[in-house]
Design a protein that fits this description.
heterodimer; A: 114 residues; mainly beta; seven-stranded mixed sheet; four-stranded antiparallel sheet; 0% helix; B: 114 residues; six-stranded mixed sheet; globular
Chain lengths: 114, 114
């Protein structure tokens, strides 16, 4: 049981480039989340999904897109990278049943946009 | 959006000392959670609190859900070097179906000197 895995661990992008951050969970969780963590700012929710085919915006969705075609995968897409998107990105998942349930986090992707 | 104010921002303590940190909000939360983040890793859940006034322990950690539902406290007794890391509070709002969308505090950076 690998839990939540994220790739890549590190990435440097040039302004205007695009990339996809991958997230996979093997716990058969219904809910998945993407957060970004800026220094001294805690984690902010970018997008979330309550099941395959269902996604919705979080607190800071601008500049990002997501899709959820399977239960296991929840990729995050950056279309036109900007320096403001330099951050550490965390994917998380939970069962989504019961109130509340535990979110399990991946190890993170550290992204730098130059 | 909702904000959680976590304090202190950082703490430098000697091994064996007790630690206290707290989190406050201007709005009510239904659930309070405390996470720890080790360097280069994602946050890991330490304690979950579901009822106002609840006091819950996990080993040397004790957390309380404030009576007003607007605050929570975390205490660590007899600190050890492996307690080093960033501690985050997180809250789940009291707003019907929230799909597990957590609001995080800014984090408390804990350094323990041997």
């Amino acid at each position: 049981n690998a839990g939540v895995t994220q790739t890549p661990k590190f990435r440097i992008l040039k302004i205007g480039q695009s990339m996809t951050l991958q997230c996979t969970q093997d716990m058969n969780h219904n809910y998945m989340y993407w957060y970004r963590q800026d220094p001294g700012m805690g984690l902010k929710l970018i997008y979330y999904s309550v099941g395959a085919g269902i996604t919705d915006k979080g607190e800071v969705p601008n500049g990002y897109n997501v899709s959820r075609s399977t239960t296991e995968d929840f990729p995050l897409r950056l279309e036109l990278a900007a320096p403001s998107q330099t951050s550490v990105y965390f994917c998380a998942s939970s069962y989504g049943t019961g109130i509340p349930d535990t979110q399990y986090f991946g190890p993170g992707t550290r992204l730098t946009v130059l | 959006g909702q904000q959680l104010n976590q304090s202190p921002q950082s703490m430098f303590i000697q091994e064996g000392e007790d630690v206290s940190m707290n989190c406050t909000s201007s709005s009510i939360f239904n659930t309070w959670l405390w996470y720890k983040q080790d360097p280069g890793e994602g946050p890991v859940l330490l304690i979950a609190l579901y009822k106002a006034g609840e006091l819950t322990s996990n080993g040397r950690l004790t957390a309380q859900f404030g009576i007003t539902r607007k605050d929570s406290f975390l205490n660590i007794s007899a600190s050890i070097p492996s307690d080093v890391g960033i501690y985050f509070c997180a809250g789940l709002p009291f707003l019907g179906t929230s799909y597990g969308k957590l609001t995080f505090g800014q984090g408390t950076i804990l350094t323990v000197h041997p």
